[in-house]
Amino acid sequence: MMVRFTLSMQYIRYNRLSTCHMTYIMVGAYLVKISFAQSERWSIKAVGLGASLYGIWLIYAAGIDNLLLSLLLYIPGLMIFYYSRYQARQQTIQNKL
């Protein structure tokens, strides 16, 4: 019983860490996008690129299986996000009529 509990706790810990790694990549990529769009200094662009590359390296080091398991957690959130965007778009169409 204790072995099963320990293994499930390790699974939760690794899965939580790989979900955090995805956010590192997204934040770094967004910083790169904003810095190039607003023509910021090269140091800000370098920080964004460094953060993105570090996030990619973290996912590589954690392993692809942990990434795929964490994507299972992102899929329901993406479905809710796109459904709410669809509803908002429908409301703006109705308001224009």
Secondary structure: number of strands: 0
Q: What's the tally of helices?
A: 3
Shape: flat
Largest sheet: none
Query: Which blocks of ≥5 consecutive residues have pLDDT under 50?
Result: none
- Taking Cα atoms only, what radius of gyration do you get, to the nearest Å? 19 Å
Mean pLDDT: 79
Structural class of the helices, strands and pairings? Answer: mainly alpha
Number of domains: 1
Gap between N and C termini: 62 Å
Order of helices and strands: HHH
How big a fraction of the residues is strand? under 5%
Name the helicity range: over 70%
Written account of the structure:
The chain is an all-alpha fold. The chain has one domain (2-96). It is 93% helix and 0% strand. The chain is built from 3 helices and no strands. The protein has helices spanning 2-37, 42-62, 64-96. The termini are far apart.
Secondary-structure topology with pairs:
Elements: H1 2-37, H2 42-62, H3 64-96
Helix pairs in contact: 1-2, 1-3
Features:
single chain; flat; mainly alpha; 3 helices; 97 residues
In short:
This protein has 97 residues and is mainly α.
